[in-house]
TrEMBL record:
Entry protein name: AI-2E family transporter
Keywords from the UniProt entry: Membrane, Transmembrane, Transmembrane helix
Gene Ontology cellular-component terms listed: membrane
Subcellular location: Membrane
Source organism (scientific name): Halocynthiibacter halioticoli
Keyword flag Zinc: no
Family affiliation: Belongs to the autoinducer-2 exporter (AI-2E) (TC 2.A.86) family.
PANTHER family assigned: AI-2 TRANSPORT PROTEIN TQSA, TRANSMEMBRANE PROTEIN
Membrane disposition: Multi-pass membrane protein
Transmembrane segments: 12-28, 34-53, 65-90, 138-162, 198-220, 226-249, 261-282, 302-328
Pfam families with a match to the protein in the record: AI-2E_transport
InterPro entries assigned to the protein according to its UniProt record, in alphabetical order: AI-2E-like (IPR002549)
Keyword Disulfide bond belongs to the record: no
One biological process term in Gene Ontology: transmembrane transport
Amino acid sequence: MKSQQAVAPDWFKIIVGVPFIIALLWFGRDLLKLLAVAFLIFVLATAFTDRLAKVSIFGKSVSGWKARFLAAVIFIIAIWLFALVSSAAAEEIIDSFPKFQVRLGELLVSLEAIIGVRGVEAIEQAADKLQVGTLVMFLANGLLGSVAQVALLTLYFVFLIAERTNWTKKIALLSSSDPEGADLAVILRRAADGIKDYMWVNATTSLLSGAVAYVVFRAIGLDFAAFLAINIFVVGFIPNIGAFIGILLPSLVALVQFDSLWPLAAVIVIYGGADQLISNVLTPMMQGRSLNMSTFVITVSLVFWSLLWGGLGAFLAVPLTVIVMVIASEVPNLRWLAILLSRDGEIDEHH
């Protein structure tokens, strides 16, 4: 007679596992943040490699190691370009900060005639609580360690690219070993396809929004045009509120930088209109349907990851939640989680 082993119920696993995972994310945040960014860049590079393999240059296909090498070079250049532009923009912001403070004071004086003294005092108190000057100095000091961080991020990314072939072989071995391994291999492939599709569509549309923003901001003469465009690309990965965050910062810069209101109107109307066109027309065409994730879940994930990992957590929040949702939708025992995370309870299956 075979002895039966006691199996812990699912609710017990959740009660024990969730605090452990949160503690791991918190205490290991310095390591895990860079790993998470490197993994998302790797997913995006993989999607780019898959599409590059379908392209012919001078009648020759770019596939295999050539596609992976070209994708790796392009993304490494992009990583360092992003770091250089952000570094230069931070120095420019610090140099321009006193000028913007004076201009902001003039705007508050003009605003006093409209909203009264108490209204202006409330705005000043809110600005003091934000400690903008301290934030800018923190940004400047943080640049000292950015080179090492970018180098480490690049190293992680290179190793992930180099290991891609080995992981493909491991999944193939899973398929040939036993039925359970075959099921796991299918789940991994479907989840990978779903994650790559999400990252590719969002990266493409966010890049287009950032390019349009850069052209508009340069035409207007807006300060920090390159940095603002990069900011728009980054927040493009945040559904629903990303568009609001993206247009808020350039609008504030336009309001403070210029005496006239027409640059502000140009930012809102020209860039804002183009961004809405991309979000509401182009993105659904590329995705087939909009991201089926609950707005409440998106908000909670933003708060959760921001509390754990700061500003970088806000950028990673939705992509990481999408990864959880896609994997859960492919695992029968976890489909309940995917249904809870979805907006309408309907889960897409990748076949």
